[in-house]
Amino acid sequence: PCLISGRDEDVQDWIPNTCLCQTASESAAKVPMCSICRPPVFLPGTSCMYETFGCTGLAPGESCGISCKSPYGSSQSVTAECPSGNSNPFKMPVFSQILTCTCPEPDPAQGYTKTSSGSWVCASGYTGTATVSCPCGEEPTLSGCTKLQSCAVPTA
């Protein structure tokens, strides 16, 4: 038998914050039920960019590491921690800071120019907004620029 003593704000309508239960070893005592955090989940199409270290089965108060996989940039890594006293089995670890992994450099393509600041723009004679994308498992690509078309003079 469990006694609910409160709820987390983010899940207050559907899961208890703390459930005090009798255990077999201490049948008369009631102890808080803590729950491990679930492993981090990344945005669809980006999971290939991240590598986790020790994030599975993370108990409350424990931490793990997350970094960018090669070739997705940054040698930076961050720490993620399962909150102390966590009783929400759906809670993910909390990141110490935001980790930004980036696309590898695409091969140059016709219609695109790289600026001195390192960003891609449409070349002269092309229009649009240059975009670099790197779907998981695929080579990075440039898109968004189209060749300007000459207009014909209308005839009467």
Give a quick account of the main beta sheet: strands, pairing sense, barrel closure. 4 strands, antiparallel
| Mean pLDDT, all residues | 80
Low-confidence stretches: 1-5, 10-31
Structural Rg: 25 Å
Helix content: under 10%
Proportion of residues in β-strands: 25-35%
Strand pairing plus helix content: what structural class?
mainly beta
Q: How would you sum up the global shape?
A: elongated
- Spatial separation of the terminal alpha carbons: 89 Å
Number of strands: 11
Describe this structure in words.
This protein is an all-beta fold. Helices cover 0% and strands 31% of the residues. The chain is built from no helices and 11 strands. A 4-stranded antiparallel β-sheet has the order 4-5-6-7, with no helix packed on it.
Summarize the structure.
This protein is mainly beta. It contains no helices and eleven strands.
Question: What descriptors fit this protein?
Answer:
4-stranded antiparallel sheet; 0% helix; disordered N terminus; 3-stranded antiparallel sheet
